[in-house]
Amino acid sequence: MLEWYRPCYDMYRLINEVDDLLQQVLDCQPAESLSYQQAFLRHLEIDPLSADKTQLREVAAKLDLSNIADTEEDRDTLLQLLFVMGVEPHIGKDRPTFIYHFPASQASLAQISTEDHRVAERFEVYYKGIELANGFHELTDAREQRQRFEQDNRKRAARGLPQQAHRSSSAGCPWEAGLPDCSGRSAGR
């Protein structure tokens, strides 16, 4: 696994750096970049930022996923199902593809965009059927980070999933004080 943080980098600058690295390491073409919204519109003909659960289930039915989607009540789970089954198979085949601006509800450790509050400064890059890396314009507010983490654990508990430990649980962890303005990414598993 490779992980790094770049002070004073926004998400776009980090995407460019990762793209340059991939071209050197993989000897591939420059990457394509699509917003999450553009990817859904191109491959599923639906706007993921405005579609309601009924509309998402209709698209799932076209992908023969009704058996899963019809009983799913969580909108983000429906979006993730559609992304994995309806978008991922079509991207990054011949060259890497960056997907950026995931819904704000899927921000994880990313900042919410100042240009569009509906999306997060988060990206993933795919190539030949594999997610190679993900990255964020890092959330620097420790209080907001803890609130998101606690909300995620409540969702996990409601679904019967195990709780996750907050990354600032250890004493003196730098995340508890907040990060400087930076973007970071990780690759590998």
TrEMBL record:
**What's in the keyword line of the UniProt record?**
ATP-binding, Elongation factor, Ligase, Nucleotide-binding, Protein biosynthesis, Transferase
Record Gene3D superfamilies: Bira Bifunctional Protein, Domain 2
The reply to whether Mitochondrion figures as a keyword in the UniProt entry is no
GO biological process terms, semicolon-separated: lysyl-tRNA aminoacylation
Taken from the UniProt entry, a GO cellular component term is: cytosol
| An MF annotation (GO) of this entry | lysine-tRNA ligase activity
SUPFAM superfamilies found in the cross-reference section = Class II aaRS and biotin synthetases
Aminoacyl-tRNA synthetase class II (D/K/N) domain boundaries: 31-158
UniProt-listed InterPro entries: Aa-tRNA-synt_II (IPR004364), aa-tRNA-synth_II/BPL/LPL (IPR045864)
Keyword rRNA processing carried by entry:
no
Q: Where is this region: Disordered?
A: 144-189
Return the Basic and acidic residues bias intervals: 144-155
Protein name in the entry: Translation elongation factor P Lys34:lysine transferase
Organism whose genome encodes this protein: Klebsiella grimontii
The gene designation is: yjeA_1
